[in-house]
Amino acid sequence: MHQAPRLFIPKPCLPWLGLFLTLLIQAQPLVIHEDESKVPSYKLPSLLNMENGMPVQTESAWVHFRRPELLEMFTHQMYGAVPDGQVSVSAELLSEEDGLMDGMARRKQVLLRFAREGSDSSAEVHLLIYTPMTEKAVPAFLGLNFYGNHTITADKGVRISTAWMRDNPRQGVVNHRSTEASRGVLSTRWPIETIMKRGYGLVTAYYGDIDPDFDDGWKNGIHPLFYRQHQQAPEVHQWGSIAAWAWGLSRILDHLELEPWIDHHRIAVMGHSRLGKTALWAGATDPRFAMVISNNSGCGGAALSRRAYGETVRQINSSFPHWFCDAFTRFNDRESSLPFDQHQLIALMAPRPVYVASAVEDQWADPKGEFLSAKHASEVYRLLGVRGIELDQMPDLNHPVGSRVRFHIRSGKHDVTDYDWEQYLRFADEMLPSQ
Ligand code: GCU
Fold first, then answer.
1. What distance in angstroms lies between residue 364's CA and the mean position of ligand 1's atoms?
2. Domain of 148: which CATH number?
3. Does residue 314 carry a pLDDT above 90?
4. Same domain, yes or no: 259 and 113
5. How far is Cα 69 from Cα 207, in angstroms, rounded to an integer?
6. How far apart are CA 368 and CA 373, in angstroms?
7. Which of 189, 273, 312 to mutate to test the pocket of ligand 1 (most atoms within 8 A of CB)?
8. 120 confidence band (pLDDT: 50, 70, 90)
9. Which of 248, 264, 296 is the last residue of a domain?
10. Best of 297, 356, 364, 366 to mutate for ligand 1, by most ligand atoms within 8 A of CB?
11. Dihedral (CA of 255, 256, 259, 265) sign
12. Which is the catalytic residue, given 76, 176, 237, 414?
């Protein structure tokens, strides 16, 4: 009789083999594609039907029923809810200087301190505020930055951040700390002089001041200030980092309400990439933002999740487990069972002006999925009596389309360029006219 060959495995190897097999079983194949023909067929969840099927036909039904229903779903299934908790905020003026940029601008640096009675944790957020030297309060752009306020300008008066940073020796960040060499390294993304000349203010802060961008088990940043006794981490439906950064933007807006040179009724919140996702979530959760700008925000931002083109839900949850609430992992590889999609996030801005910008070489962020979100969201703008995007096809390169919902796809890479800013300034000129 034929005997099956026996496999001999030396005993010391057994635990390693076990580990190897476990990892093999656990590892799900990660299919990432940037191929339009592989986009699964999908049906987008309805914007103008309640979850119970009731049609939403009036502005009032949108405002009082459908919008809160959608906001609740995004909050508890994706970005996470901000827990209750009384955090005190104090503001300290660190410096103020007039007559910068050939007499055109003034600069303020303000420190916001967050604390909570009975908690050892605290957080400090450094604000950098530029305003043109006008006599009137001006509308302003507010956006978080990736590597500290000093990286957006060569202005030597801006304090170098001492906070933890992602290492980036090319940009002068060594051992997780900024050095003098990082001054101005991201200035191409922030055309401050142009913004001043056009009559707008610019407000920024380092996003890591609110919550450092790494998976540290929720020990640092703003989250611990909200823990109940003995709580170690946010609960399954509670906030991840994106919701924390968005919360921080709202706290900055609270402060801007007190700044005499800023017209806080005309603040455009803007962000790039993960901070574009953040700007959208800030706009959705805080209607005080008069305009919202998403620059190349991609998955978890403007791009439709169901297309699973470029970055997918599984991919983003695996690479950045701290960005969303834990409940969002339930939709890994199950985009079609999400009760919402990102066109509904864009619609939460309605009727406020919203700009979604893509770049053709940024396929990871799925430009087409970003366009479709903006286009579909326009249905709600129509209900509210204003125009969004009427076009069905992606527009040509460098050819902005739409009215209160606007979209462009520009040539070039994942970045913020002068072209992008030119469009945002024009959009603001049109949509945030002086009162
Ligand atoms: C990664 C991530 C994106 C994110 C981007 C960024 O590419 O996958 O989701 O937008 O980083 O923030 O730079």
1. 9
2. 3.40.50
3. yes
4. yes
5. 29
6. 9
7. 273
8. confident
9. 296
10. 364
11. negative
12. 414
Any domain includes 24:
no
Does the beta carbon of 128 lie inside 6 Å of ligand 1?
no
Residue 26 has pLDDT above 70, yes or no: no
Residue 38 CA to ligand 1 centre (angstroms): 22
Residue 8 resides in a domain: no
Segments forming the whole domain that contains residue 259: 90-296
pLDDT digits (tens, 9 = 90+) for 333-367: 999 999 999 999 999 999 999 999 999 999 999 99
Close Cβ partners of 373 (under 8 Å, ≥ 6 residues apart): 302, 303, 304, 341, 342, 343, 345, 346, 356
273 is catalytic: yes
Cα 275 to ligand 1 centroid, rounded to whole Å: 9
The reply to whether 268 and 161 lie within a common domain is: yes
Binned at pLDDT 50, 70 and 90, residue 434 comes out as confident
Token couple for 156: 């030597």
Q: Assess contact for 241 and 222: CB atoms under 8 A.
A: no
- Tokens 């592989």 correspond to 38
160 and 131 part of one domain: yes
Are 101 and 228 within one domain? yes
Q: How far is the CA of 347 from the centre of ligand 1 (A)?
A: 23
Residue 232 pLDDT greater than 90, yes or no: yes
Shared domain check, 310 and 288 = no
Domain count, the chain: 2
How confident is the model over 51-104, as pLDDT tens digits?
999 999 999 999 999 999 999 999 999 999 999 988 999 999 999 999 999 999
Distance of alpha carbon 291 from alpha carbon 349, whole angstroms? 8
Residue 10 lies in a domain: no
Instruction: Let me know: does 267 contact 255? Beta carbons within 8 Å.
Output: no
User: Mean pLDDT throughout 401-423?
Assistant: 98
pLDDT at 10 over 90: no
Nearest residue CA, atom 13 of ligand 1?
Answer: 273
pLDDT value of residue 25:
42
- The amino acid sitting at 432 is L
Q: Does some domain include residue 175? A: yes
Residue 201 has pLDDT above 70, yes or no: yes
Pair 102, 234 in one domain: yes
Query: Phi then psi for 72, rounded to 5 degrees?
Result: -65, -40
Percent of the chain at pLDDT > 90 equals 89
What was the pLDDT predicted at 216?
87
Q: Is the pLDDT of residue 12 over 70?
A: no
- Choose one of 251, 274, 296: the last residue of a domain: 296
Is the distance from the beta carbon of residue 271 to the nearest atom of ligand 1 less than 6 Å?
Answer: no
Catalytic residue among 178, 273, 358, 378: 273
Does 64 qualify as catalytic in the annotation?
Answer: no
Q: Are residues 232 and 105 in the same domain?
A: yes
How far, in Å, is the centroid of ligand 1 from the Cα of 431?
Answer: 29
Do 99 and 208 belong together in one domain?
yes
Q: Which two tokens stand for residue 203?
A: 């407000």
